[in-house]
Amino acid sequence: MDSGDVSGEQSADPERLGAPAGRRLVLGLLAAGAAGVLGGASIQQGLSAVLGPIGNRDPTGLVGLLPVGNTFRFYSVTSSVPKRDASDYRLDITGLVDAPRTHTLGDLRAMPQQELVRDFQCVTGWRVPEVRWRGVRLVDLLDDAGVHENARAVRFTSFDGTYSESLTLEQARRTDVLVALEMLDGPVTHEHGGPVRLYVAPMYGYKSIKWLAGIELTKDVVPGYWERRGYSIDGWVGRSNGRDDDPTG
């Protein structure tokens, strides 16, 4: 998600939930989270009012996993992720391309930028509405590198060293798929997967890989981290977020 998503943003690994807590508290928080997933936005807002004051002193770490209010939940599949900035960030475009590329953060900032205002929907049930995203269209980077005729998919890797994702080439060429440099009216923070992350507008958050480091053109779709654990390869949200819009628009 992300950077509020299981891409890719918080792991519910019980070994990383913090100090021991009472069984009643843990079960209560898990039940509240399930209610938020099943009940949608109205219950999320109620949970926010009740749980917000205890979030900063939650001994379990579970409050941060609940779908509370219109805010991102933070997930990672690793215990830590190195920070990168303009001095050491690199994005490699490799595989079935005519001209492999390595882009610095400065390179990406100098390219034409696309802005989108779309929701961010996590597969676990919570949503952040009308997030402002800005970055380079993935299709522009692919065209710059030159895609081989036998390429049918795109594989993405994270500099967390573990997470990966994939799109079909058709999906990757949609104009609502961004290599995002900004979100929420500012640079993508480290916690949200910065300095560069993917944003796939019409799909669930786990498709929008954080801490983006590599883009590889491949012959076939390579299942990503969560697909290998049972998630759908085609993570469409549904009719919302431009699922049925013209992808070439």
From TrEMBL:
It comes from the Bacteria. Coiled coil: none annotated. Residues 80-226 form the Oxidoreductase molybdopterin-binding domain. This is Molybdopterin-dependent oxidoreductase. It comes from Nocardia colli. The lineage of its organism: Bacteria, Bacillati, Actinomycetota, Actinomycetes, Mycobacteriales.
